[in-house]
Amino acid sequence: MARYETVIGLEVHIELKTRSKIFCDSTTEFGGDPNTHICPVCLGLPGTLPVVNKKVVEYAIRAALALNCQIAGFSKFDRKNYYYPDMPKNYQISQYDLPIAEHGYLDIDTGGGVKRIGITRLHMEEDTGKLVHQGTITTTPFSLVDYNRAGVPLIEIVSEPDLRSPEEACSYMEKLKAIVQYTGVSDCKMEEGSLRCDANISVRPAGSSKLGTKAEIKNLNSFRALQRALSYEVERQIEALEEGGRIVQETRTWDEGKGVTLSMRSKEHAHDYRYFPDPDLVPLVIEKEWVEDIRRSLPELPDARRRRYVMEYGLPGYDAAVLTSTREMADYFEDCVASYSNPKAVSNWIMGDLARLLNANNQEITACRIKPRQLASLLELMEKGTISGKIAKTVFEEMFASGKDAGVIVKEKGLVQISDEGAIAAVVAEVIASNPKSVEDIRAGKEKALGFLVGQVMKATRGKANPELVNRLLKERI
User: Fold this and answer.
1) Which of 99, 170, 361, 379 could join 123 in a cystine, given CB atoms 3.0 to 4.6 angstroms apart?
2) Coiled-coil ranges per the record (predicted)?
3) What does the angle CA 113 – CA 115 – CA 118 come to, to the nearest 5 degrees?
4) How far is 227 from 238, CA to CA, in rounded Å?
5) Rounded to whole angstroms, how far apart are CA atoms 397 and 459?
């Protein structure tokens, strides 16, 4: 594989978070019974006319600016003509030669440092319906069609072929997802299909500047699928070339169960779609003043926020990157720090115990029952010595399950830390008397024995003894 170089470009489709569809007033709400979120316009029935949703244009500009794109003063909608059962009109309204935005970029972190990935274009289009297969697309005896999604507004973001590995492709997708989520134009829920990806991939001899023949892998709807499909395709193409074969330009699908890509059809070219300007939609003239108003409304984006966390809060770069990976997590962190001014302690708890419980329960931070002020209160109890770090973890799990305040749980369960020196000294004396062998080991320089005695004191006090005080008293008495 060292003799070949992988070349990858991604086409990412993102559903915009508008209330109504791109050319009609049907709802974009996810779910619902099949074919209930439809109307004559999104079904393309005779006599209907589309009208562009201004919010869609605004959201497209907002995302494009966040991705450093140039906004076109003049753009238009085109008809992309092809037959497929999930398209009620037998054409898709998209943008071809005059998209709303071009020439952008985003930066990703790689093992060799920061790498800039070019963005060729960002354009608007309508989503298609959804085919429901009885099995996989290649084995199903029949498929059902649901047009609820037809007409939902999309932006398609096309990258330059700048990605050189499946890992870089995943980093690009993660960064793109974070930026778009920060702008608020989409929730990017891959499990609901609001973020999907097509990957163009080819291989070429190392050192060559000529692109190899590419294959397009359609509808990759998870980071795991993207990673596995690209890894498989690299191996497939290299193996074919090594055996003296050639790569055919085609569209392939990813079979998650078998872990392979499968051929669907020969790859189409732009002229196959017979693009022409949609006669029912007037061109878009975008005023510069509107673009600048949208630019001023953009939030602080992930890279800027990460740099600020390092400078303002003194966090390590790794912590800052994790905390800013989603806007919701970054907001949660800042709300905590506003109540408890130890950013590193807050970061440790969010990245550690909170992340663990969220992952175990398959839960987003927005659904977490522990509010930022409640986490701050728990840390304050630890700082005051009211509870130990070990007890704090127990309290935290109860907070996560019940949503109760830390103080309430500590009081209900009698978990207040024992910091009375006299009370702890009595327990220490009993432990020393009961473990003469450990005492001799400590006096002989075996430090591990001290940990055993500390554990015995903590056990006797049900974890309530102040650990620092226990350590000091044991050392003094021995």
Assistant:
1) 99
2) none
3) 175
4) 17
5) 20
Residue with tokens 């060799």: 112
One-character DSSP codes across 109-164? EETTEEEEEEEEEEEEEE---EEEESS-TTT-S-EEEE-TTTT-EEEEEEE-S-B-
- Identify the CA nearest to 125 among candidates 177, 178, 89, 160: 89
Residue by residue, pLDDT tens for the chain (478 residues) are 689 999 999 999 999 999 999 999 999 999 899 999 999 999 999 999 999 999 999 999 999 999 999 999 999 999 999 888 899 999 999 999 999 999 999 999 998 899 999 999 999 999 999 988 887 777 788 889 999 999 999 999 999 999 999 999 999 999 999 999 999 999 999 888 899 999 999 999 998 889 999 999 998 989 999 999 999 999 999 999 999 999 999 999 999 889 999 998 876 677 788 999 999 999 999 999 999 999 999 999 999 999 999 999 999 999 999 999 999 999 999 999 999 999 999 999 999 999 999 999 999 999 999 999 999 999 999 898 888 888 899 999 999 999 999 999 988 877 766 666 676 777 778 878 888 888 777 787 777 778 787 788 778 777 777 777 777 777 777 7
User: What residue spans define the domains of the chain?
Assistant: 4-293, 300-413, 421-477
Q: Tell me the CATH number of domain 421-477, given options 1.10.10.410, 3.40.1190.10, 1.10.3720.10, 3.40.640.10.
A: 1.10.10.410
